[in-house]
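User: Thanks for the earlier help. One more: FtsK/SpoIIIE domain-containing protein. Can you show the sequence and predicted structure together?

Assistant: Of course, both are below.
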Amino acid sequence: MLRAMNAGAAQVQRPTAPVPAQSIRFTTPVVETPGIFILTGWLWRFLRALVLLPVQFPVSVGAVVVSVAAYGLGGWLGLAVLWSVLDLAALVWWRRWPQSFKTHVARRVLATWRRFWVYRRHWQPVLVVSGLAESYLERQYLPQIRGVTCSAWADRVRVKLVAGTAPAEFENRVAELAHGFGAPSCRVEVRGPRDLVLEFPRRDTLADPIDALPVPDEPDLSGLPVGIGEDGEPWRLRLHGTHVLTVGVTGAGKGSVLWSAIRAMTPALHAGTAEVWAIDPKRMELSYGRALFARYADAAEDAVSLLEAAVTAMQERAERYAGKQRTHVPSTRDPFVVVVLDEVAFLTAYHPDRDIRRRAENAIATLTSQGRSVGFCVLAALQDPRKEVLNLRNLFPDKIALRLDEASQVDMVLGEGARDRGANAHLIDPDLPGVAFVKLEGSLAPVRVRAAFVTDADIDTMATDAAGVVG
């Protein structure tokens, strides 16, 4: 027994031979930098900052130089007179030309303040925590802020990327950047190699509802005013030469988009150069304005017949244009036809008759694939963007994403990577109907907009006016 205990003790105390790979450890040599080199580096940075100061901050440097000169010539009295005159001039400028004062003075001062107090102050911790700082040979490299500009509603931070990184790294961190700098959202705009702009809204310019917009005297079918964008500019929806798919849950504001587009077209409808063919399976949305429509259907069989009639008219027009005309010009003979299709899923997925679903899908596919060049447009509204509900999403060049149920649906509607670029349609407040993200054909960046709200009284007035024109 004693022998067994000794054997166990010997077994425990037996040394273990090191693995050859573990016996050698390479470390970075530490070389002390001579003090003269450190002082030279500091002196170089100081002189460079001193030389570039007038270029980077011409107004501030100019104010300091003029103030020193005034003090040298007239003492404190001269300095007081100078600043009194400047303050009076600024006051007159502000009162007489407020927009010019905001552009050239107020927003530049705001941009300088936010550049140093908001972005430079928090730049390193936000980028390190969000994983956008790069390390090489135990040194940390950060993207550089090249400048900050302020508009009426947002800050635009221009950034120079670290060599070897891609803009996609910022696009995948928009939520972290927005929260890090205290902004409602963040969007990334790529301007060139290693050059991008981060856009941080300072406030939500779309928080207030928008009343129905005035009807234009001469509607532009390639840019109908239907609301406003986040930048405060009018949101113009193109219909001529494209097809538009609008997706959103119940109460998200799909009707605002449809009716705002129809409202902007009413002069062309009265003149006969445009027509609306409406399909309203719910019988609750488009039925208010039946007098505005050249054709209207709500029952499934009638709706499919209307779609097939549109296909026939489109093909007849294409046959007349063949070899003679490549683009469509709206006229009373060949009006621009907009097929407004509310709740398209009723015809393509939910109707129990398989033949109805097949015919509707074939007609929609034909219109969206062949109708643009001959003056036919499909403006469709949908709640569920899944492929099994509507597998024709890719035939709609322009897409509008109102409030959605799930994050995954954003990319279904707007295309792959849209949510990474800041199109958080699934996070739209339910109290903001009509707010949406729009992605146009050929553009990667979604734009946040809000459609105007067309009331029942507005629709009644439009329908009455249309009936008076027809009568």
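User: Great, one quick takeaway?

Assistant: The chain has a mean pLDDT of 86.
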